[in-house]
Amino acid sequence: MTNMIRAEIITIGDEILFGQITDTNTQWIGTELTNIGIRPVRKSSVGDQTDAILQILNEAHQRADVIIITGGLGPTKDDITKKTLCTYFGVGMVRNETALAFVTSFFEKRGRAMTDLNRAQADLPANAVYIQNDWGTAPGMWFEHQGRVYISLPGVPFEMKHLMTNRFLPKLTEHFQTPIIKHKMIRTVGIGESFLAERIEAWEDALPDHIKLAYLPSFGGVKLRLTATGDDNALLDQELAEQVQKVMPLIEKNVFGFDNDELEEVIGKLLKDKNLSLGIAESCTGGYVSSQITKVPGASAYFWGSIVSYSNAVKVSALGVKPETLDQYGAVSEETIRQMAEGVRKALGTNVGIATSGIAGPDGGTPDKPVGTIWIACSTDQRTVTRLLKLGQYRDQNIQLTSTYLLNMLREELLNI
Predict the structure, then answer these.
(1) Pair 189, 253: CB distance under 8 Å
(2) Half-sphere exposure of residue 248, counting CA atoms within 13 Å on the CB side?
(3) Burial of 209 (0-12, 13-18, 19+ CB in 10 A)
(4) pLDDT at 77 over 90
(5) pLDDT-based confidence at 74, cuts 50/70/90?
(6) Is cis: bond before 154, omega within 30 of 0?
(7) CA distance 315 to 292
(8) pLDDT tens digits along 174-213
(9) Which helix (H) or strand (E) holds 39?
(10) What is the average pLDDT score of the chain?
(11) Residue 102: phi, psi to the nearest 5?
(12) Distance (Å, rounded) from C-alpha 246 to C-alpha 381?
């Protein structure tokens, strides 16, 4: 098999370390590198300090065949990437006439005057191969040094993505002979990572050496990512399909989709295919479940509306919950959640109604009903099912988990209709 090419991604900028901006570049770059058969082995963030950048470059040289750097290419004094690269490679800075012509044209087309700082954008390390950035003045740069390839990119995401897609990814493909890396994602819900691992342990142990499994847990679910490496694209697809076929009987009940499928999208398709309408009654989730449903384009075809019945008075007036039910059992009870799910279906005239009611926290718990006590329900013309959730102390987590568990309950009920 072709040797694996390793890559390290380095983001430069104090603003990333201070949490003032979110680093989305490394995630995107990692995905694109994998698609061309280059395996990211590490990502690092470093501030605008010369010594720190030099240190991380030296370390990356020991680990990777390709070192990709984003950020620090602007015209101001705090942008030190080019000067630091000169120090690292032991070269001087020279003005690149092709880069200068592009920067000049860039400003002329916009009717803007150039400053000396703008002209300095065309000053590059002497060993740099200039790569034109069509969408900005910060240059792209390609270096070859001691058997390694170094790529320097602007940190602005849309400029970086354009350069990588149109310039650097094709250049990397030409430069390296890379193996094929293929991913297959199995999307599960309603089962914890450890329980899932126990259930598929024998299958996992029997995977061939060139197929690896990773567990990617999230709120209420786990993604199983199979990664196959080889030289034959069609064969890898076949092998991944065979492994999915082998594991499915063990986890089929918890699998809602594959690859980029999202739970709310799968539910939307089920509702459309079965020509069913949905109404939602929310108390403790405060509209979060409805927002998940309406993330899907075209949700109006099946989602008719929701009632956020945060108070008991609204539960009675809008959903038809009986006052005596609230008096006897309370808002957080099986009896109440059943009437909420059935009530929203009646109030909105939908085929299906789902509901939430509970104590999301951090306050409001009692010895009998501590924070994290939440009831969910799903009602159809066939039956109403309910479930008690016993979650944790954290409000945001409880709301997200409740939404996932409720949507999965809805999915399971739709499969039975």
Answers:
(1) no
(2) 11
(3) exposed
(4) no
(5) confident
(6) no
(7) 22
(8) 999 888 899 999 999 999 999 999 999 999 999 999 999 9
(9) strand 38-46
(10) 95
(11) -70, -45
(12) 36
Could you report the per-residue pLDDT of 352-403, keeping only the tens digit for each? 999 999 999 999 999 999 999 999 999 999 999 999 999 999 999 999 999 9
Task: State both tokens at 92.
Answer: 């001087």
Helix (H) or strand (E) segment spanning residue 216: strand 211-218
Tokens read off for 367? 């010895």
Q: What is the pTM of this model?
A: 0.78
pLDDT at 1 (0 to 100) = 63
Residues in the chain: 417
Two tokens, residue 385 = 């099912």
Residues 311, 401 contacting (CB under 8 angstroms): no
Domains located in the chain, CATH noted: 5-175 (3.40.980.10), 180-258 (3.30.70.2860), 263-415 (3.90.950.20)
Q: How far apart are CA 1 and CA 230, in angstroms?
A: 6
DSSP string, 1-25: -PPPEEEEEEEE-HHHHTTSS---H
327-333: long-range contacts, CB 8 A cutoff, minimum separation 24? 330/369, 331/283, 331/357, 332/357, 332/358, 332/359, 332/369, 332/373, 332/374, 332/375, 333/357, 333/375
How confident is the model over 145-184, as pLDDT tens digits? Answer: 999 999 999 999 999 999 999 999 999 999 998 888 999 9
How wide is the angle at C-alpha 400 spanned by C-alphas 292 and 305, nearest 5°? 35
Calculate Rg over the CA atoms of the chain.
Answer: 28
Name the amino acid, one letter, at 223.
K
- CB-based contact 126:92 (threshold 8 Å): yes
